[in-house]
Amino acid sequence: MLSTTITLDISTQGSLSKDFIGAVFRGWLGHILKCGTNKNCISCEEQQNCPYFMVFKEQTNVRPYSILAFKNKDMIRGYIRVHGEKRKLVPKMLSEIQSRDGSKHFGGHRYRIESIEAKNLEIKPVKMSNRIRLVTTSPLAIVHNGQMEMLPSLGTVLRSCVRTYNRITKYHDPQNYPYHVAAEIMESNADILDFDVRTVGYEHVSMDKKSIKLQGVEGWIEYDTSQIPEEVATILGMGESLQIGKHTTYGFGGFVILDQYEEDKA
Fold first, then answer.
1. Residues 6+ positions from 46 with CB-CB distance below 8 Å
2. What is the rounded distance in angstroms from the CA atom of residue 245 to the CA atom of residue 123?
3. What is the CATH number of the domain that holds 182?
4. I need a labelling partner for 7 at 20 to 30 A (CA). Which of 74, 82, 137, 178 fits?
5. Tens-place pLDDT, residues 101-129
6. Backbone torsions φ then ψ of 177, nearest 5 degrees
7. Rounded Cα–Cα distance for residues 93 and 81 (Å)
8. What are phi and psi of 52, to 5 degrees?
């Protein structure tokens, strides 16, 4: 499956007070994409060509995008990933982003778009040898048997990766649906060798004043992959590209895989 990644560097005239800004970044995205009419989104004939509808109103509840956002004082680095057939909306999104440059948002601060980059990316396998380290780039909220996992097994991570891929492709890229994987691969038994994790929680108040609690896990987990099939590298690559678990449209679910053999050599 092909995805388009939009990378933004944004400066603000004042520092943001919140530590986690994924939800704030999502609010900004909705603000700049909303059209100036009073049309009802659900009955609008332009909904399939509307980026705002994609972000907030998609009826399947399977959003074909994810975001990541990080702050450093008065700078924001944001990533918007648009998947499958919805990549056709990227030109309109870029136009809207540029047209609102110099406006106010982000806690009432005026902002400027310092740089924009957009490119298409294919899902690629991660590098994997005898040991890998899963490092979160944003909180990870993987739920298994009704409970959030602090130290998910590799099998749980793999199931989340495949579930995310198949949910998105089913509705937004059907020619690449489904991804079939053998049961023994999904149940790959990789020992957890080391870890450093912590729970985090944030509260987001939506535009209609609803409070949304976002909870996840940050840190890293190291797995023994010496006996793991090579296909696992492709499945983990899906998760890196798409983000996994709950709240990915609020900036959760980001991770990278580090090959510890390569790290040890360095």
1. none
2. 18
3. 3.30.70.1900
4. 178
5. 999 998 888 999 999 999 999 999 999 99
6. -110, 140
7. 12
8. -65, -40
Q: 106 and 133 in one domain?
A: no
**Other Cβ atoms within 10 Å of 120 Cβ, number:** 11
Degrees to nearest 5, angle at CA 116 with 93 and 89: 20
**pLDDT tens column, 128-187:** 999 999 999 999 999 988 889 999 999 999 999 999 999 999 999 999 999 999 999 998
**Of 149, 27, 37, residue with least CA distance to 76:** 27
List the one residue out of 143, 163, 140 whose CA is nearest residue 255.
140
Q: Which of 78, 100, 121 is the last residue of a domain?
A: 121
CATH of the domain at 52: 3.30.70.1890
Query: Residue 88: what pLDDT?
Result: 96
Tokens at residue 107, please?
A: 């806690």
Q: Are residues 73 and 132 in the same domain?
A: no
Q: Which domain holds residue 81?
A: 2-121
**Same-domain status, 9 and 52:** yes
Structure tokens given for 189: 């038994």
Q: How many domains does the chain have?
A: 2
User: Residues 171, 219: one domain?
Assistant: yes
